[in-house]
Please model this.
Amino acid sequence: MSYLDHFNLKEQPFRLTPDPDFVYWSKQHARAKAYMESTIWLADGFVVITGEIGSGKTTLLQSFLAELDDEIVYAVVSQTQLTATQFLQSVLTEFGFKPFNKRKVELLDMLNMFLIEQYSNGKKVVLIVDEAQNLSKKVLEEVRMLSGIETHKEKVLRIILAGQPELKETLESPSLKQLVQRIRLRFHLGPLDKQELREYISHRLAVAGNRYAQLFTDNCFDVIHRYTGGVPRLVNTLCDTALLCAFADGKGNVDAADIMSAVQELDWKEHENNTGIFGPVRNIPPAPGSESHITRIEIRANGETESVHSFPAGRVIIGRSPDNEIYIKSKFVSRHHAQLVSDEDGCVIEDLNSTNGVFVDEKQVKKYKLEDGDVVSLGVHQLVYRDLRDQVALDDEFDEDEDEDEEEDDEASATGR
Model:
């Protein structure tokens, strides 16, 4: 008897090979996938996804690829320790060519002609580079050049770079400034928090066929997080080993003692995420007051206010999927309907290829710079935009005046006046 029979499981719940059927959509994984999907909606789609080893990037990519329509033509390059010429050969090979014994200029011409042909046939082309942290700066410069291939109307190649955190560091190089300017969206996948870890384990067990009592007892999860740091690949390794330990002892479920037995079997120490040696990078909104908010959006429906949101400078996605910063539950709103981009110059709203469109003052827009008081319509909902920049400036001026008054008071105290 295997442990699968013992625990009434149909398949291994914690195997390490990527399997889209087992994907757990934490909020940050759902956001990363939404960013990848944006390469399809946006003509100049260029996305960078980074994450720690074992954070689920490859599984995420496979899930994204499994859902692509027939109108999408894609290439996946995973071997990235290449010269610029070898990289171009790899891309063309993925697209079905035999590009060997060709000079670089011939390779570029082949790729350019292929992209224009696909565009003429109504196809969209996506290039996905996994393990992109290994790309040399020369190859990354080649990627920049490829991202600029266009017809007289739009870019013809969408690009997704996925890699470990070193990719972020490489992109900070001054020599890659032009490449960074082409990147539309960037996202870093951090580890799972304790609640996400519990949901992740329960999800994988359910997919594997667990339909009975809680297989992992409540006292397991804190211990699992302590020794894995919330990194999915480490969670899989520890949980699989714990199941084997519990099975060997003839137990009907896994408890904290089994987790510790697995830790000893693996000879693990507490994960660095929990010791302070390494702090995970998380995409968490800043705490109120930690950063000045310059945009406020009031959501209305049927003449009543449903919610009010305010944001600092940056990008905000609006849609009916719960992973959006602004979540609107409505059949008239697309899953990822529109985005707001705020900076020191104001706020721009852009339609993300939604089904029912974006309207400002009853006029449909694709991309529009908002003015204070503008009303944006998404289906039956209205978004009222408020520009908070003047208020932020006043607050800053008030703070400066207060600082000056305090300095004068200190000086007066010091001189005995």
